[in-house]
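hi! just following up on the protien thing from before. the input was this:
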Amino acid sequence: MGNPTPPLMSSPSHLEHRRLLLKFMLGSPLLGLTFCTTPAEKKELTEKIFDGITDPSQALDVFDFEKVAQSKLPPAHWGYLATGVNDDITIQANRDAIANVKLKMRRLIDPTQVDMSTTLFGKTWPTPIVLSPVSSHRAFHPEGELATARAAKSKNHLQILSTVTTTSVEDVTAERGAPVWYQLYALNDWDATKDMIQRAEAVGTEVMVFTVDLAAGSNRITLERMKRLDTRQCNNCHSSNRFEHKPMVSNAEGIEFEEKLTWDYVDKLKATTKMKLVVKGIETAEDAALCLKHGVDGIVVSNHGGRASETGRGTLDCLPEMVDVIQGKIPVLIDGGFRRGTDIFKALAIGANAVCVGRPYIWGLASFGQQGVEGVLQILRDELEMVMGQAGTKTVAEINRSFLA
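and the predicted 3d structure came back as:
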């Protein structure tokens, strides 16, 4: 009968193939992701495996834009965007506060008809995602605030324009095709401050966002360290006067931020403008109550993205006590570390009416201009729509604390 055919597993060639396959699998960096013990290790290994995106359509989340932005920006400009204060603890606290909130999902509720619209001061927006005021967009892209305005128009998002904009409120409003909200830093010259207010009113601005958390200054060490790595000559853009190249300050000579801010200043603004007055930088229930007492029309729960005071307290940690004080009497917005649709859902569940994002859309701007901003907004919209469908919430009004574990 002769010798039978040996089993396949004993074939030398097959064994060699198995050995090579096993060697490849054990040496694959992808396998390493399984054995990473910390999120930081996983992030580091992932960055080694995957190159940066070259088109907004390639992004899987907003963090894909961060890597591209860092590679494109000069050190000082990246430092300005990335910095917190002191040890940057509060930047991380914002993210930690969001991560510490757990969600409960409902099932067997039709997820196909999700309405993300929200209403602020009588105007309805398709999503509760707002573009926070960020200074000096031209530091991140040549088209600056105009590219951002075009993206906001394309996606129909509410845009808040910074006092320290590199494009005037008149030009931004024209590019947006509709009034934006205007963020106000009080200046040490009341006439210059009033001039900004009147210019915003003249182009139809209906809401002024008064930022109050920088009166005592801020210690931005990361920014200062990054400046030392930058060897460029920056005199063409910067001088000892911070407002010299800022079009919203008509006469910048001797102008600085006003340091003597009290609740009397809030009353003064209320008496000066017909615009709705929103106070940004509120972090305590006590100050939320005072906002109601002084007739403020809305608040933004904010620690300036961890760039004002090193409280070590995330804004999402602050939100519940303020929502409980406000009790729906005025809109409550929030910013600080929001990077995913689930993050936004958590804030809405606690009681925020809208969520502002800053750094993510600037990552998009620095990476790809208008298309990058649009890409960031689309990702956040898609993620929020998905988590609303997963939770079975057909409208923003249905999102409440019952979805928090």
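Residues 71-403 form a domain with the TIM Barrel fold (CATH 3.20.20.70).
The two ends are 72 Å apart (CA to CA).
cheers
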